[in-house]
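INFO  loader      accepted 1 record
INFO  loader      residues=271
INFO  predictor   begin
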Amino acid sequence: MPLFSSALLHASSEATPQQPLLQHPEPSGHLLLQGEMVNYLLQRARRRSVGMRITDQGLGVTAPGWLALPQVEAILQRKGAWIVGKLRAHHPSHPDRQQTVLQWQDGMLLPYLGGHIPLRLTVPDSARPRSSPAACLLPGEPPVLAVPLPVGSDPAWVSRSVQRWFREQALEHFTQRIACFAPILGVRCQSLQLSSARTRWGSASARGVIRLHWGLLHFAPELVDYVVVHELCHLREMNHSVRFWQLVESILPDYRRLRQQLKAVRLPVWQ
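INFO  predictor   done
INFO  writer      dumping tokens
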């Protein structure tokens, strides 16, 4: 099977325009893989091999500075089936990528730690507030998230009220889980911060700062624990080496299953 250079593919795409499988926001090149036009972001780094990472933004490629572009694209061609399969799985139209849009109204079910909490608007129509007061959880079977706003309130007000409560709960839950796992790993989290990053669930710095996406609280507790343990392990191993994964496995023996589940979940859309 012949290999395609960027110049030839640019010429053919001009003759027959084709929409990329996933439109990368900052592409540096494109090529034809498995009959699909794929654009990619190429970054150079001090490394021995070519790395590929596929996110919702598209294909990112990291290659050694000494490796010529035709050689990089030859490697992409050999990995074409894998790349196209992953890109299709990340496409918004893929069934597994469909997101739930949260409807901010009385009686809605809010995804929370793998289950759902019913939401109730609890203020009479005659007492309309001028701002978005904080929601609170009322005990019961099931518990109810009470939002002190009247039925029919602006959904943006309801969303802000619930999000304030949700972020507070996320910070509290993450703090508790870090306190559980950090002593076992012999590490210390110097600072915990909530994140709204688009492409990662968490991060850890050499200074001991851990950032966790507040939306993780939508998912089952075991998935939250996986992300917490993952980032805590980075405080000992700032890489994804064999030693790093052995450390994760020492705390979560079934981390591979959790890792795959986390790749499959989607955050609901807050509006």
